[in-house]
Amino acid sequence: MLVIEQRRIRVARLVHALIAKAFLDIIFIIALVASSSFQLFEPRFRGNVDEANAARVAGWVVNAAVPARRVEVQLYIDGRFIAHSVADLPRPDVVAAGRAKDAASGFEFKTPPLDAGLHEARVYVMHRSEDDARRTLQLLGKPLAFRVERRGIAAPKEAAANRDAR
Amino acid sequence: MGSEQLAQRDEKIVAFWEIISVVASVLITSWVVVPLSGSNRLGSVVPGLLAVAFMLYSHRLHGETAREIGWRVDNFLPATCLLIGPMVLGALLLLLVGWVARKAGLGEPERVRSAWWILLWGFAWGLLQQYALQGFIHRRLRILLGRGPKAYLSVALIFALLHAPNLGLMAATFLGGLIWASVYDRVPNLLALGLSHSTMSWLLIRTLPDSLIVGLRVGYKYFT
Q: For residue B77, is it within any domain?
């Protein structure tokens, strides 16, 4: 009877150990996933695409985690890569509005010649992991639609609407 | 159901979950930690340490001594004698498969890893794997299934599963797992098994084209 009791105690202790290990495994996985998410998909980019038309696409962006580091941005129009740039143009209005501490946060792309019709501009922020093993693109603000009346000429209403959306 | 049967049933259930727990640690490392931690190898150590700590605690509760588990030298020679035959056959099989694969245009074996690799890193790694596989998983499978072929087969299947999705390596580890389990059952000596493991790994690398064993990569790393 004593032996049976000892075996029961051993089983109970093993069950406790199994539960503790499973708990630690889960905690470790959660910590790993959270840490990797921050490394792979930096959530602290702040910015906006202020304007998109047949002449230019412009806005601002900072990395709130490392404000002194200039942010890389890429322009896509209608899903096609157009250009790559670094957001380092002066934007005192952004600092004045309290959205960034560093004025060198602006970017501007010259819109390439486009066919007449409706187009969509998307600006992506490029994020590099610490070891530069992975690079991810994150959409900045919302996609902006704009109309080109003739090849390379913006429709006045669309340009005004984009300015109002700022 | 009597109290003896109840105790046995509980021990079997716990043994099953003990195996699952250790296998899960390996799978977490190869499928979750490796892709998420990237070049930071520190993260890979945590599930391994948890598994080792759990195995040590389990041995203590089961009253298993290091000698019983196979950390001993007195039966090193008998264990080695039992391993020599299958190892020679395995080596001949590897040479044959390697020769056929090269003739079939599947490429050349990897030439990077040296004899030092097998002596130092290979042996330590093989020993650790054999400890987890035979010293822990096999011993818990005995509680679950009893001694004999069923336990050997289960050890081999688990060992192969841990090397997924590398099919070439899964086949090799299945055969190796069967042989090592049967030898461990008769003469439990982890040092001899570790030496056999590292020797066969080295032979595998030196004889088979890399297209078949994919640099011994397993889990997520297999696809990289």
A: yes
Q: Which residues on adjacent β-strands are paired with residue A48?
A: A60
pTM attached to this predicted model: 0.81
The pLDDT value given to residue B215: 83
The β-bridge partners of A146 are A119
Say whether residue B100 is in contact with chain A using an 8 A CB cutoff: no
Q: How far is B98 from chain A (nearest CA, A)?
A: 35
Q: Which of A103, A34, A41 is nearest to A70 (CA)?
A: A103
* Domain containing residue B219: 66-223
CB distance B122 to B201 below 8 Å: yes
> What amino acid is encoded at B54 in this protein?
F
For residue B38, tell me if it sits in a domain: no
A14–B18 C-beta distance less than 8 A: yes
Q: What is the pLDDT of residues B64-108, one digit of tens each?
A: 999 999 999 999 999 999 999 999 999 999 999 999 988 888 877
Instruction: Say if B16 falls within a structural domain.
Output: no
Q: Does residue B177 belong to any structural domain of this protein?
A: yes
pLDDT single digits (tens) B116-126: 766 678 889 99
pLDDT in tens, A62-101: 998 888 889 999 999 999 999 999 999 999 999 999 888 8
Which of B6, B16, B58 is the best mutation test for A, with the most CBs of A within 10 A? B58
Number of compact structural domains in chain B: 1
